[in-house]
Request: fold
Amino acid sequence: MPSGHNSEDRKDSTMPGTFSLEVGATGKYRFNLKAGNNQVILSSEQYDTKASAQKGIESVRANAGDDARYERKVAKDKSPYFVLKAKNGEPIGKSEMYSSASALENGIASVKTNAKDAKVVDRTA
Reply:
């Protein structure tokens, strides 16, 4: 039997992550941190200016390695998710909903691994 998915899962650790900086229809800026497999692992709040969104990306880089900055939460439907917070306690971004606590921990580990060296892809032009 072929076991194709293990090699697919490993692509995440070998390909670099990216911050995708975007501007929405309302003119507000936001970014997504994507793992090497292009899956969104952290989404920002909306920012009024591009410069503020870029500062948000730097804040993710600065705080992603500190486990104390992750607030683990549970949504009304019992799905676990996390919020990454800055030193001042302000939210920087949040995760998607996860199917289990272990999947949430894998998501946090992915942010820690990808945020520091992720390149910024500017999609605002």
Remarks:
- The chain has a mean pLDDT of 90.
- The helical segments are 4-14, 50-63, 101-115.
